[in-house]
Amino acid sequence: DSYNQPYRTAYHFQPPKNWINGMYSIFPSTLLKLSLLPFIPFFLFFSFSLLFKYLMSLTYSFSCFLSFDMLNGHVGVFGLADPNGPLRYGGLYHLFYQYNPKGAVWGHIVWAHSVSKDLVNWTPLDPAIFPSQPSDINGCWSGSATLLPGNEPAILYTGINPQNQQVQNLAKPKNLSDPFLREWEKSPKNPLMAPTSANEINSSSFRDPTTAWLGQDGHWRVLVGSKRRTRGMALLYRSKDFSDWIQAKHPLHSILGSGMWECPDFFPVLKNGQLGVDTSVNDDYVRHVLKASLDDRKHDYYMIGSYNAAKDKFIPDKGFEEFVLRYDYGKYYASKTFFDDGKKRRVLLGWVNESSSVADDIKKGWSGIHTIPRAIWLHKSGKQLVQWPVEEIEKLRAKPVNLPPQALKGGKLLQINGVTATQADVEISFEVSELGKAGKLKYWTEPQILCSTKGSSLRSGLGPFGLLVFASEGLQEFTSVFFRIFRYQHKYLVLLCSDQSRSSLNKNNDLTTYGTFVDVNPLQEKLSLRTLIDHSVVESFGGEGRGCITARVYPTLAINDRAQIYAFNNGTADVKITRFSAWSMKQAYIQ
Ligand code: DQQ
After folding, report:
1. Are 479 and 500 contacting, i.e. CB atoms less than 8 angstroms apart?
2. Which atom of ligand 1 is nearest to 98's Cα?
3. Which residues belong to any copy of the Glycosyl hydrolase family 32 C-terminal domain (predicted)?
4. How far is the CA of 55 from the centre of ligand 1 (A)?
5. Ligand 1 centroid, distance to 96 Cα (angstroms)
6. Is the CB of 302 under 6 A from ligand 1?
7. Which SS3 state, helix, strand or coil, does residue 561 take?
8. DSSP 74
9. Of 57, 100, 126, 288, whose CB has the highest number of CB atoms within 10 Å?
């Protein structure tokens, strides 16, 4: 059915297929329970939701009452969103995620649940957490898992109560001897954390508890995203028994003007090396990362600093006083990390919404995918994080196509044959010799602006050179992922762009171009690019994971066997391809 679903991904996680046509086939019991809940007659809801979306478009502030992705539960679309509470237990990886089982009827958001042995192939199970008690009767929103001593998983998540307030609840597995953790039971003491008149917490800006960590004093700590007026913050709670939680006097950290911090994350990273460490580690061989999904900007930002355990304060490093660095400079939101103690790595999961129109989403019948899980660690410079697809994804590689090192002259287009162009993993490295031809950047310019104004067609000194993917034979459609090199203040800036402006003849799509600078010195290093191509996903890693950009494209011609891949150089200077490997990717079992 790839012909009538050309955009469904083959190896990026998305709602199981049979949730779309016959959603009752997977877990009738649970869904029937849900459907017995009183629901608004369809026609009323439909008009309500259109009216609602109209209101939303008018008044932004209204949306802080309802989370951003709930509006992605368009009528009849089965929206997958935030990854929730990822953990490893019983030799299995558990992924939960925000899901509207009844398509449109938002407010019944549940924690859908899938398990995997390798983070690549996933088996769906019944939803783990769904509205069932007053403290979450209007929805089970995002949260995180913590492994308590004795390896007992505990999930803290946001519930929406009958007054539509956001409160924090606890759920634990009913049966620890079930490695699939199919059944979860909620604390009868829920909600464990709630807005009160005393704590002046805004009940529509209080959500997404993090994985908890254990302090030297034997007390647990957890963060909850919040804001007061425009000051975004990470509220801190402490607990001795993981049940009674006391709000700390001060947030762990806050930034004036940053707006609501959704899906916060707080974790240590080794100063040296690529291994991950447990969330509770706090020694002088780690640094700490504080991340937030900024509701006002719809991007995931992070800062590096140190965690002062005595004061329960995060002190950002110089240059990180504001949220500047992002995990991914494309479409990427509500990400979560977890420590995979099996392979001693920290794994990052992110949600990528659609760039298609609402009408097209309804036609597709699904919306939302997750990126390939990424190992994440601190770059040796200590100034940024590095991300790389987990090595297990390489098991899907088939039929390698390798090209010998060769020049790629200015204006040259090199067609790559022998690869399934809609389902591929491409690695290419470039060497640049004529740096003297690099264009001069007179003044600092945002990378996304540079990429948008100087698309892949505009010739300049050094670049654009890179890949054309989802390219139609006549190049009526193509998505270009490319480098440009500029000279700026006596050094070279390497720009990485993912240009979607020509990706589809269907202009109803969001064709925004994305860009970032990659901290690579072309005098000393090759420029490497890896792009994972998967039907409607272009997930790119520049500089071995120092610059990541995820995009969604919906070509009308360059689909199935009519898509092409090219290497290209539209600069005036020649460049050299020093390494080229491409693989056709096999279909993963993501149901
Ligand atoms: N999505 C969840 C919220 C979170 C938002 C609701 C982020 O908990 O803040 O589906 O996308």
Report:
1. yes
2. 10
3. 392-584
4. 20
5. 13
6. no
7. helix
8. -
9. 100
**One of 1, 69, 82, 136 is an active-site residue; which one?**
82
Contact 305, 243 (CB under 8 A): no
423 bridge partner residues? 534
Which residue puts its alpha carbon closest to atom 7 of ligand 1?
334
Instruction: Give the atom of ligand 1 at the shortest distance from the alpha carbon of 142.
Output: 8
* Residue 241, amino acid: D
Q: Is there a catalytic annotation at residue 126?
A: no
Q: Which CA distances in Å does 461 have to 139, 439, 525, 540?
A: 54, 5, 19, 23
Q: Are 499 and 505 in contact (CB under 8 A)?
A: no
As for the ipTM of the complex, it is 0.99
Distance (Å) from CA 81 to ligand 1 centroid: 8
What is the Cα–Cα distance from 30 to 53, expressed in whole angstroms? 29
> Global pTM?
0.90
81 CB less than 6 Å from ligand 1? yes
pLDDT at 533: 98
What is the mean pLDDT, run by run of 10 residues, along the chain of 591 residues?
A: 84 74 35 41 44 43 33 62 97 95 72 97 96 96 97 98 97 98 98 90 96 97 97 98 97 98 98 98 97 98 97 96 97 98 98 94 89 98 98 98 97 97 98 93 93 75 94 97 95 97 97 98 97 98 98 97 97 96 96 70
* Interval between CA 31 and ligand 1 midpoint (Å): 21
**CA of 158, closest atom in ligand 1:** 8
Helix, coil or strand: residue 62:
helix
Task: Say if ligand 1 is within 6 A of residue 111 CB.
Answer: no
Distance 518 CA to ligand 1 centre (A): 30
* Tokens linked to 515: 């860009």
Task: Give the residue, out of 105, 141, 168, 227, with the most ligand 1 atoms within 8 A of its beta carbon, to mutate for a pocket test.
Answer: 141
Q: Which residues contact 85 (CB under 8 A, 6 or more apart)?
A: 94, 96, 111, 143, 144, 145, 155, 157, 336
- How are beta strands 537-542 and 547-552 bridged, if at all? antiparallel
Q: How is residue 178 written in tokens?
A: 């079930």
